[in-house]
Amino acid sequence: MELPDYHDNSIVNLMASLTAAMGGKCTDYPPLKALPHEEIARYKKVMLWVIDGMGHDHLLRHRPEGFLARHVRARMTSVCPTTTASAITTFVSGKAPLQHGLTGWFTWMRELGSVATVLPFHPRGGGAAYNDVGISLDSVLGWRSIFEAWQRPSHALIPAYIADSHFSRTTYGPAVRHGFKSLQECIDRAGELLSKDENLYLYAYWSELDRLSHMHGVASEKVLSHLAQLDEAIEAFAASLDEDTLLLITADHGLVDAPAEHTLWLHDHPPLQECLSMPLCGEPRLAFCYVHADRRDQFLDYVKTQLSEACEVMSREEMLAKGLFGLGIAHPELPHRIGDFALIMKGRWIIKDRIAGESDFHMIGVHGGLSADEMYVPLIVRGTD
Fold first, then answer.
1. Which of 166, 212, 239, 241 has its CA 20 to 30 A from that of 311?
2. CA dist., res. 365 & res. 302, Å (int)
3. What is the residue-wise DSSP string for 251-270?
4. Neighbouring C-alpha atoms within 13 Å toward the C-beta of 30
5. Cβ within 8 Å of residue 310, ≥6 positions away
């Protein structure tokens, strides 16, 4: 079990370094040890490129001689859970999940009275998006975009299909959003923005590696071919940048493969299912369980005697004491969003349930858990030093 290192070696600390360099207010977290803010501040233009699903160990295992691997400066941790909903929110808020309160793809929000699918911001079971019925994401966040606190003009390059989503409009704040439909369009637009003779910060998000990993597996031919394509394209892009530009590349999480036979379906375990008052929340690799008060002993006994091969169980109190979600003062809703217990999956196991309206599907590559492959992400630095 690999825990996030929020003291000086996580993506939260990377954002603390960037905040200090951009003239923002001090955060709750110290800067990243491997990248002091003074180094960032020497550059007029700074680009942070987040490649969804590019784990540190996976990169070095499959592309050890490439441009990206040659420029790895540090092996950082992601956040908990190791998932896009929590980690991307860190990149746009500067906060750990303890403070930003988004604890997985499925998050129980008692203020909405439902389990929310947080990035598209609609109920888990489907139906109208919350903002379509007059409920804004801003009303449940309790924090503002990191770009509002920075003293440098900011831009965000985002896939076109999510560039104007409710989540993007809310969390990118004053940053100018630019949609793109291909890798080349992303690179071309980044080049145009960075060619301007002005101070700026550019954030870019690339999702295709994660999508292919979900569909085909982390070491599949399609994934490794795409990783090679990315590596070569980024090397050529980096060579075109001038000396006033700092290029930082990282990821939100890595992935592992979960064979279908390593799936625990909740409906196959009635004694466990009857203990729960709500559907599973969080992620299939780290599931938050809301347990009836009079069934706690039954729940714990079943997990420890019947599921010990597949998972560990941790109480809310243990999770908070271990600092899984961050350091300091918690978001007021955070304790309500992590259940009574978490099932933290071992090996390549996942746990899933299904509610009315949901179809049965299986992802090969998965994330959200606390394995090294999921937790560690690279910090890649290309400057003039």
1. 212
2. 27
3. -S---EE--GGGEEEGGG-H
4. 9
5. 262, 264, 345, 346, 347, 349, 351
The verdict on 239 and 264 lying in the same domain is no
Task: State the pLDDT confidence band at 19, using cuts at 50, 70 and 90.
Answer: very high
Is residue 206 assigned to a domain? yes
Q: Are residue 220 and residue 299 in the same domain, yes or no? A: no
> Which residue, among 198, 203, 194, 150, has the nearest Cα to 176 in the 3D structure?
203
What does the pLDDT read at residue 383?
78
State the CATH number of the domain containing residue 237.
3.40.720.10
R_g of the chain, CA atoms, integer Å: 20
Q: What is the CATH number of the domain that holds 331?
A: 3.30.1360.180
Residue 125 lies in a domain: no
Same-domain check for residues 200 and 244: yes
Residue 2: is its pLDDT beyond 70? Answer: yes
C-alpha span between 169 and 3 (Å, rounded): 31
The per-residue pLDDT for 384 is 62
Taking only the tens place, the pLDDT of each residue in 88-141 is 999 999 999 999 999 999 999 999 999 999 999 999 987 889 998 999 999 999
- Residue-wise pLDDT for 249-295, tens only, equals 999 999 999 999 999 999 999 999 999 999 999 999 999 999 999 99
pTM over 0.85: yes
- Which runs of E-coded beta strand occur in the chain? 45-51, 72-77, 106-109, 114-117, 122-123, 154-159, 176-180, 200-206, 245-250, 256-257, 263-265, 281-283, 286-289, 311-315, 341-345, 350-352, 365-366, 376-382
Q: Which domain holds residue 216?
A: 11-94+132-257+370-382
